[in-house]
Amino acid sequence: MGRLPIVFAALLLATPALAHTGEGTGGFLAGLAHPVFGPDHVVAMIAVGLWGAFLGQPAIFLLPIVFPLVMAFGGVLGILGAPLPAVETGIASSAIVLGVMVALAARPPLWIAAVLVGAFAIFHGYAHGRELPDGANAVAFSAGFVIATGLLHLTGIAFGLLTRWPAGRLAVRGAGGVVALVGLAYLGGLA
Amino acid sequence: MTAFLGGLIQFFIPTHLLAVAALGLLAGQHARPTRADMPGMLIAGLVIGSAAIALAMRETPAASVLLVLAAIAASVVVVARPTPPSIGVLLAFGIGVALPLNAPPHEITIPAAIAAQIGFAVAALATFVLVTVVAMQATRPWQRIGVRIVGSWIAASAILVLALRLAR
Known about the structure:
heterodimer, A: about 190 residues, mainly alpha, B: mainly alpha, 8 helices, about 80% helix
């Protein structure tokens, strides 16, 4: 009971950081923290999980399985230095589009959802691939940031399970709206 | 004893853990025909890999081989379809051979080097058995999806680091 305020206080004291800063630190914890401290990345990953809740089975389970693999493909493109235009715009757009999909409780055919999410996964993976540190800790860093991304999906899915109740459905759609607004802020250069 | 513990600790680096965890998930996920021969082939690979260290005159690409095999094993876990038993056996043998080659012992005397290799093999086998048993317990649908999700994380991590190795 008494620990909760301390946890929140610690969260407030944490130094804000953005993803894709280009820092070349290695290690599992650095990889774990890398996507978590980038708001644009966080909201988009959570939105993938939230949307999965509206899409239902099998999408809700397929997305967190497929996303890391497609993201890795994007990461490979980034590592190899393949040209991919407007990466940050693509990431901000992913938050907007996915947020709007959640807000509208959209249920397109699975293949359309998969193509959309897969395309955005490439942008996210590309950005991380460009910043993957070389050296002995590359494996630990990669595992850390892939796991962090997966856990963000699972967080979104867990929150998305609230859609079983009318009030929860409203809350999830509202969260989708917030995700879209965060994406807009990034796209407009306000964040 | 010190050499044994040194070898045991030498196993616990991310590349080894990725490869053995992927292999363990594969063994735990699949039914008996695929699973049965994998521990034996892993042990055979570890023995051959340990013996091959004496012949390895220069640095081997064992780390990259381990990442490739980890990515393949994890991808098979992600797909979660029945696979020929030979795939699991080959992966177990390949990972078994590559593991010791990626971590040659630093001991000066032959008995100490052998003790270190035994410690290394014990750590590898214990990790393999642990992951296999955990994956075997995953019988409910959501648990089996969890195994596939972990498989996708391993595959993604291995693919990223492989690309990094090839590019830089």
